Queue: 4 jobs
Job 1
Amino acid sequence: MFFSMSKKLQQLIKKFKNSKNSLDSYQVISDFIKIIKTVPEFIEQIQEEGKEIRVKRAELNADKGYDFGYKDRKIHNQKREIKEKALHQLDPMFSFRNLHNVFHGIQPKNINNNLDWLFPSFGPDDPLPKSDKEEYLLFMEKLYKKILPFLGKEEEMGFDFNSKKSILYFQEKAIPISLNSKKTNSHYILKHIFNSDDLSQEFPFREISENTFKDIEYKWRKIHRACEIVKEKVYKATEIDDFIDFNTGKTACIKINGKYLE
């Protein structure tokens, strides 16, 4: 059993958004880059794309507008600097390099030599400054969008739930959950679970009711029946009858069987 790479990257982006301190934030970035580095053809591609941008940046830097008068040269150079800065940020290697610097710096063998850089005016237990967090998040999201075409269709056969298609991918099977445009309760239960950073936890029915179903009145039996339907659909497709564990009552929970998360 394996999780699709795209799902892992999505979860790490979400985990980064929710990270409470700078050390956790840096560790998520490190885990994100570890995955990116497993797709060398993607890194080769963005290196190639970056070459063209770097050539253009070099041309802009060489053109100082010396043939213009002082006033026109000043306007020319202001526009040139704006273009150069934009190209610098558009270079896909710019995002990768910035995140890779964190990945390299946070490694146990390197961290002692990078403390001043990693924690310049805050500590490991302090939140990452808002501007830093927003910038790193932007880099992660840019790389995620660019790497998707490199992951291949085999990604779909990982362990995942595609909420747009309402398909559960499990045991190399594509298991339809909602068969039409109207999404079922079973669909929303799986969406709730797979939107989580931690698939191994228990998910209380009440939490699903309040956060995903948006129910004013909590009815555990409705969620219990939806869980039964998920279990039935998985069994029909795979003959596995213990994909999920769930119980009854107002304090009931649902949990993916841990052996399928290994």
Job 2
Amino acid sequence: MNQDKIEQYGDDLYGALRAGHTLAPFTTREDEINIDDAYQISLRFLNRRLADGEKIVGKKIGVTSKAVQDMLGVHQPDFGYLTDAMVVLNGSDCVVEGRLIQPRAEGEIAFRLKKDLVGPGIDEAAVLEATEAVFPCFEIVDSRIDDWKIAIEDTVADNASCGVFVLGEPGVDPRDLDLPNLTIELFKNDELISTGKGEAVQGSPLTAVAWLANTLGKYDIPLKAGEVILSGSLVPLEPVGPGDKMSLTLSDVGTASVSFV
């Protein structure tokens, strides 16, 4: 895809984010679009946000669990960037209008790094050694693509369909945990709606973060000390809107909650 189109589509996504509307899937408009094109579009989208003063605070892995892959019809992981404008404080209200378009809630395990991770060659032991703490987390995914009709190239271009995220409390040293066997319980309006385990993301959240470090290494992008890394949803996506309250419990780690207004 030529550079003019890459910039146009990145600008279209930025405009959709700011105006709160959706776009036709790129894969219905561009027969030849590939993953590398999509990541270039994503970078243009990100750079427009950075030009507004947003700062990168982390990165996210998307579409890692079978439940999410089956729901979206996308069968390989992707990645996106987290900025300070995406942070929602634990236990607070998240305003939907003007910020989110078609949000869905995911329950995840988040990592905060104390050392850089630079692929290739990163394994689970390296991730564990570089991690300061893990947290219960909500990622509220959101698509700027019509009706979530996404192929992998569409969600990659759209910053891995990231909306906002909520870090729960407290942070826990992962060396004391059996990460694949941690259990998450997700509640909507105080009703238990789904459960999952850490093994849902590529067998272990450590494996998912190692995949991200190695994938980004191909683009000369490090995972940096101090960044938050979202390792992927352990449960199916749940649509949310004004009036909904979401909460989760992650065994041996803690809780997170957010209300939508």
Job 3
Amino acid sequence: MVTNKSFIVLAGGKGTRLGCYKALEVINNESLVQRVVSNLSFFGSDIIVVIAKGQYLPQFTSYPKSRVVTDAYVGKGPLVGIYTGLLASASSYNLVVACDMPFLNLDLLDYILSIPGGFDMIIPRVGSLREPLHAIYSRSCLPVIEQLLEKGNYTTDRLPSLVKVRYVEAEEIDRFDPKHLSFFNINTRADLEMARKLAGKVS
């Protein structure tokens, strides 16, 4: 069971396809990033929100155990965000989520956090589709990530093959989130409008 844990929220995406900084887009009177922080605050752990250089987020005054840090490298993608969050964390294990996942399932997150330790990563997987932006990373991943970044590998694709991984398979996910809304993320204006409609049904 993961006990020494923090949460890392990746909020540095440029929102190119959406046409704006997605973290501040609003669903049900809450920005996407506020919605994620609010959900994660249920666990009472530290929350580290990672943004890109030049971006700005208001302080999350409703949850004082949160803080904002800036990407260690400029414009290099999610692996840099994960690396930055792990560097900033004092916890051995860190559950990483993207700020554009508005329907996090607390029961599923609790289940993932209940999996015994000893893994470098714990990643949900549906068929061949992995969810690295809804996964647990140990700080033991830091030197491996650093090596990848030094070689110009800025995606999460290669990391699982280089560390000890526990996959959370579809049948496990289905017990808590049969529609897999946890992994719904917002990339386009159509995604945002769909999320707003769904929020009215699942709130």
Job 4
Amino acid sequence: MTTTTSPQGRTERLRADRTPVRVLVVDDEAPLAELLSMALRYEGWEVRSAGDGAGAVRMARDFRPDVVILDVMLPDTDGFAVLGRLRRELSEVPVLFLTARDAVEDRIAGLTAGGDDYVTKPFSLEEVVARLRGLIRRSGTAAVRSESTLVVGDLVLDEDSHEVSRGEASIHLTATEFELLRFLMRNPRRVLSKAQILDRVWNYDFGGQANVVELYISYLRKKIDAGRSPMIHTRRGAGYLIKPGE
């Protein structure tokens, strides 16, 4: 995997194929699972969730996660049993146990069952993200690329020098085009709405200027995608996303 870090300290970890690291969140508390998923997506990771043990195993089989957040208390079984089934599907996937239990014996049970780390509720999102980064790093599959570089497919953006290239070709962007591309690349494969883009790039919290987003997306396409496999895509009625060209 390749690791890139933004100036704000967030770390986007990419697989060898330049796609985001995949995280599976298993928790039957829907609001908590959604909160975790949102925080992890903000880090640049691809996230799926499941609310019970059976769903977790099915999702793991299809999604092939690189790391798993696993609640011990699930409605159909406990996390220790789920871990055993996950290990049969993905023998080396790192697992972070998440639970309200804080007794020493519970921690020992979780680690003895094959878990790689343990966080008790309540917890901070920053702590969970930090623990996941550590698990990925210790798994031996992460390698540092650059602290200021964002990479999606063959598109590379250096946040410090403001240099952009695709393949061997350098691409000149205006300041606004650069900020728009940076926001897209910090969220690869994620659909971003016009309202989100306006708020982040232009600091607008209303949709009255949504046409400016369409205009600058068209500018970027001419510079990024012209004569190449498209990377910037429109999801009608939803927004825009960037992903590696096919």
